[in-house]
Every structure is written in C-alpha cells, then in structure tokens.
Amino acid sequence: MSPEKLFSLASTIALVGWVILALAPFRRLSAITAARLIAALLCGGYAALLIHAFTAGPGLPRGGNFTSLAGVAVLLGSPMGLLAGWVHYLSFDLFIGSWEVADSPSHIPHWLLLPCLLLTFMAGPIGLLLYLCIKATRTFGQQR
Fold it and tell me: Which of 21, 68, 84, 116 has the fewest CB atoms found within 10 Å of its own CB?
C-alpha cells in the first residue's frame, strides 16, 4: 500500500477514536477503552512502519538520528519516515485524549473537556496544557 493510502487510513482510524471520545458521556468506560485500543492499533502500525523502513527499500535515508535537528530532518525526509512520524503523533495524541477523559474528575463536565480534546487532536501539547489548567482550576476551586 502506498504511503499516501496508509496516511489516509491511519488518519481515518485515529479520527474514529476522537469521535468516540467526543461521545464519551454516553458510554465513558467503553469510549476510553475503544480509544485506547485504537491508539494501540496505531502503535502497531507505527512499529510496522519502522520495521519496514529499516528492513526494506527505500527505507529511511542514511544519516538520520535523534541527536540533532538535522538528523531528525533526515529521518522525516522520506515519505515512509514522515508517515511513521505522523502515525507516532496520531497514536500519542489519541492516547493523551483518552487519558484526559479517564482522568477528568466528575466535577469537570464533558462539555468543558471537549475544547481540550479538540486542541489535543489538532495541537497535542496545547490541548493537554488546557486540560491541566482546567483541572487545576476546577480542583483548586473545589478545595476552597
């Protein structure tokens, strides 16, 4: 399958997980479990991409490493390397979204969690930061 088709497939699979999390109030535990299973599936896809990249041609370009920005640029410089990086983002962001839903205390309504999920989906660390700020604010307010 071409990298472009794999990109579309992985993105669609991840989107299903995000929709499930958005609908979490209806079946919270089931939604968290389903999203985490989808994240695990994406992790397996990531592993397969890395194995393919290192064992089959054309693979990752020579000179790639994680010790310098130039080395990371080389790793992401091929379609398969870029796809592996994308699937890495998809899996981790989805897992963080499932963690936000699981971690959110009962005094954080789901409607307040939705912007966090949207931002985690679109810009992972910013969504996580928003969630942590909301949780800290709401938790501090409950303790007073």
Answer: 68
Supply the range of the domain harboring residue 25.
3-104
Cα end-to-end span (Å), the chain: 57
CA distance 92 to 46: 11
Structural domain includes residue 140: no
What distance in Å separates the CA atoms of residue 130 and residue 110, rounded to the nearest whole number? 14
pLDDT digits (tens, 9 = 90+) for 105-136: 777 899 999 999 999 999 999 999 999 999 99
User: CB of 34 within 8 A of CB of 97?
Assistant: no
Domain tally, the chain: 1
Asked if 95 and 47 touch (Cβ cutoff 8 Å), the reply is no
Name the pTM for this structure.
0.88
Rounded percentage of the chain residues whose pLDDT exceeds 90: 62
